[in-house]
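Hey team,

Filing this mostly as a record. A colleague (T.K.) asked me to run one chain through the structure pipeline before their review meeting, and I want the input and output archived in the tracker in case anyone asks later how it was produced. No errors, nothing strange. Just documentation.

Input sequence:
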Amino acid sequence: MLYEIEAQGQFGQTERFFEWVDSDRNVLLKLLSQDRDWFVEYGHVVVSSQPDYYFEPPLGYRIIEALEAQIPKG
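Output structure:
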């Protein structure tokens, strides 16, 4: 499937691009800027299970729980 995407950039500018997604595997295959000055394309995609240790924190790191920031009123 081909999608036309519009997103707000880091500094408030609007970014537009196209993305091609393999809808059977839900995998992004190609990303192209709307003005066609850059693109990323994946040519050989293999979907497979990954070992659990890929998702563990590296040695010496510890997991901390993020707290939601409180926005002051007034």
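Quick notes for T.K.: The mean pLDDT is 89. Residues 2-55 form one domain.
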